[in-house]
Prior knowledge:
alpha+beta
Amino acid sequence: MHAVHGTALTNHEGTDGARRAPGTGPSPDDRAQGTRSIRAVVVPHTHWDREWYAPLETMRLHLVRFLDELIDVLETDPDLPVFLLDGQTVMLDDYLEVRRGQRTRVEALIRDGRLRPGPNYVQPDEFHVSGESIVRNLLIGLTSAREYGWVMREGYLPDTFGHVHQLPQILKGFGIDTFYAMRGFGQDPDELGSQFWWEGPDGSRVRTEWLTESYSNAAVLTAASETTVLHHGALVRYDTLAELLGRMSPRAASGVLLLLNGGDHLHVQRGLPAMVEALDGEEVARELDVELRLGGLEEFRELMDDAPAPGTTITGELRYGRTHAVFDGIGSTRTPMKGHAERTESYLSGVAERLDALATLVDGRTSADLLRHAWRELVKNHAHDSISGCSVDEVHDEMETRFTTIGQGTRAVADDALARIATAVPTAPGEIPVVVVNPSGFARTGSVSAEVLPDLDAPVGIRRFGWLQREGVDLDGYRLVDADGRTVPHRRTPGARLLVADTLERRKELLLDRVDFVATDVPALGTAVYRLVPGADPDAAEPAARAGDAARPVLDNGILRVEADRRGTVSITDLRTGRRREGLLELVDEADAGDEYGHAPIPGDVPIVGADTASVALDPDGALRIDRRMVLPAGLSADRRTRSPEHVELTVTTVLRLDPGADLVLVDVDVDNPARDHRLRLRFPTGTATAETVSESAFGVVRRDGSIPDSNGWQDRPSGVFPMRRFAALAADDGAEGVQVLAEGLHEYAVDADGVLDVTLLRSVGWLARVDHALRPHKIGPEIPTPGAQCLGRSSFRTAVRVFSGASGVGHLYRAAEAFSVPLQAASRWNREVPTTTPRVATLGLAIEPAEVVLSAVKTAEDGDGLVVRVFSTADEPVTATLRPGFAIGAAHACDLEEQQIGALATDADGAVRIDLGPARIATVRLTPTTAGGGAAPRTDDE
Length: 943
């Protein structure tokens, strides 16, 4: 649980002019004339889930009606000074896509400060997306709001299902130093109060308003306190407004109360100004010494700025359901969809965006606008009800289509960037260059696949009609060599794909071979050139880890030995230390009577551990294949208290691969699931006698000891699971030896005192929400059937197990995660008739040092001027980050997260840029490359 402590505080920094709405807030003179000690700001608002219990287009109808009415009311009622648009901007985009004629009216209200969009683009989830995604959500939201005419810089996140530990630093990086939230706090509100600081691990802190009585605390006002009544389930409950004010006032040390007049999808409450005026004039308001006024979050903030600063600070992630549910089980809801989401985001941010930035250095062209469009569409899927998996089936079906569409666009950008980089490589007669690009900030060795065109005379890049592809050369007569002319083992797959390419120069159908090999020591964010040259090498072997034969199915690469037993579980022996770990990848199944929001156990349920049958074999390509069968109850009984007596057969196929020189075992898992209402997990006995895990969160790791707080009386009792992004690890006390489990889209794990880690593969449930939930027996949403959340049929998952020794810090965990989720890229040059591009910079490359400094983004700057590089420190002590470009730079500047320059950075004699980072610090740097001719590279805008 996060810590609470008293602290000596300095005055909170003031607001900038862009924060205030002209003519809507109380002036200093107004405040001076006030005679009541408690001031309550009534903020009209709505909370808009763009998709949840209904799909987007259904909700768009209601959004159009809502905004049509709101625009009319604001234009005709000058006494309604402001309306808060839920801290997001996407509502306006969704509205104006169909009501294009309303844009002038919308923009006029926004410029006047009466409609206030932003700072987010959508109300996000934070635990099941990357830190970079949270940044892009804010970047897109603020940019969009600015285009409409108003930027609200208030950290309003009312309904997000918990908050990551780095959010204070993220908010501060956008000039936001407030935080408004309902969920995630683990203290008693009457003891902690509702106003305090929340501090991130780097020391950044935001002034926090805990919405203890929900973001709907004043949703149904009347003109009299006695008739203002609200009974809203577990969120807020009172019989008079005086009761609510009497509950809130002792918690607000500032003497300023925030009354939120709105709720889920509520339209504007007509007559609100007269109601507030009547309530302010009542005798009860005078007796309570409360003054009520209308305003927005900025007006509330102005009053808070005049009040004494909070004397209490909390730290740590906010993921506790004491007063409002945080739904810790959403990490395992619809895991196949989460896997698709993570693949899409990793490719966009880790491959396409970085390759486009490198290609811009080559030829000055960028696809930044296409990438911004992809980010905008991706962030729409990161809304908290969407990416969490807790919506109706239609929502998630549409999300899958969006992920697919985003993937199509980003792959086109990446392929284009690879081709442009490859075009800078000269060719010799009869040779085929293969360019490997490393998207990571450190040198890498790993397996790559490149598509090769055997027809060396194909006029790719040339306008040519009537061209028919010839068979081309027989690449069996070619060998692959590195830059030093050494033969590199490779495997070729003839005719692997038919590609219709060269769209702008009269399409051409290309029959491509695929070449697989291990690329060695590819420079950070740089390239390595290999060549297919005539002349076979009879001594060249195909790349593969050393393996046993069919009678002894073993993987062995000289670092690790991987074996499977008759039960289908796996042992890994670290040949460097002799340490053997057994029982890995055990299957564990149990009943689940929960809903999309979380697992619910049933009384007396005994988990089913292990497969009923298993077979182990080596595949022809050298992979270890395990086929297992589990006989499981078909579902729950009719009363949902036991598992059904009918049984079905679930099959799991696991394929393990071990690359040469790797300490990482790649594990692909295919599940064919016919069972309902159950949770299936993979078990990893790490052999580490500790329950403390190190797991990835936004811009850093979180250490958890596996303990569960006493939750009697909580609205949402913890289920014993924890969130992770790409990995969770357990290490020995000295941190030098341990096991790291990596996964794509599997965001839920549990750990016991013996260091046994369970990662959830599937959680099959059939309801959006249920009121008979064992850990949360109250209504949280509509009881709508969601058969798609049962995840029936085939699902595929990417995981990996890494055994490490002699390690220090956590930088090595991130490097393994980068290698797992961001593959090396390779392409051959096809357009031999097109002259070789002369690169605008001498060489590519950008190394990030040391390992404790992690690369988050490399992108073309939003304004097109240079490259933006974002890193963060995972070290517990101050560290100097070194950015070592392989190209000359004319200038380097430190920036905030909005890419606004803070100050110039010096470069060393060797061209490196050094930045001193405190623990957990995020840093954004803009690099302006120097072209080969010596001048600064011009802007590379798409316009």
